């Protein structure tokens, strides 16, 4: 495991930002990047694995642990009815509820085993011990993302090689397994301390890093590495949508909020009209809510309308800048 640890890790950012070029660029710059398997077909994931394998760099692959169907299905039905004006606004049809979706989990695990991916991380829960054992037998090192000491204890029971302590300041989805009560009000340092208290494995820290001082502080607090996402959203190699790049660079005073409005799972995003209108009424229900809002978000993206898009970003997003990933990494390394 120690040979794969880097001070800065480029976080997996599903939905487009994480590309093979970003991961390879990070690897060539002496860091480590993660491919994001979430939302992709197994075929698309394998294509990305082939590209990165050919580059010969150390890298990771992130997988979504399947979540059970919503406990309160009626609340998702109600939310669907509430979203009808948005469907009318963007001239799209809302899909029927899709309550079961494992994101091709078994097939993606099999790919990770077959390609002997150096690092495999999990979010949205803890994989079964048999999955962890299969990956480790193939030579992979396994990481589980957690947001609390309680989640860390559960993750440790399956024998991971390391944990990722995700603070509430992190952009995008929270890995929490208790989405109903999640507020995103803990810092990366607080979460790191809580997780390290119960963990007997290396712990990475994630959330709210905008510069080298933030990275240095988390390393000094005991993190073996710092996972950064928002700092790389504007990287030249990232697949971030133009509309999000423009929103981040506009200079408009946008704060970030934690919302379930887009996917049914708490996630930190730039505040916009959609988060204002639906955050208070959105149910717990990932991935059912995610599938429900996909047509609205796709139509908004086509129109270049940032007000109905999931503009995932952490609290330090304003520090992000446009540059090659190697330059961005140099600005995050302590001492630079």
UniProtKB/TrEMBL annotation:
Reaction equation(s) it catalyzes: 3 propionate 3-nitronate + 3 O2 + H2O = 3 3-oxopropanoate + 2 nitrate + nitrite + H2O2 + 3 H(+)
Cofactors that this protein relies on: FMN
Signal sequence bounds: none
Flavoprotein as UniProt keyword: yes
Keywords for the protein's UniProt record, in alphabetical order: Detoxification, Flavoprotein, FMN, Monooxygenase, Oxidoreductase
Record-linked CDD domains: NPD_like (cd04730)
InterPro entries linked to this entry: Aldolase_TIM (IPR013785), NMO (IPR004136)
GO biological process, one term: response to toxic substance
UniProt entry tagged with the keyword Chloroplast: no
GO molecular-function term, one example from the UniProt record: nitronate monooxygenase activity
Pfam families registered for this protein in UniProt: NMO (PF03060)
PANTHER family: NITRONATE MONOOXYGENASE-RELATED
Protein family according to the UniProt entry: Belongs to the nitronate monooxygenase family. NMO class I subfamily.
Protein name (Swiss-Prot/TrEMBL): Propionate 3-nitronate monooxygenase
Organism: Micromonospora zingiberis
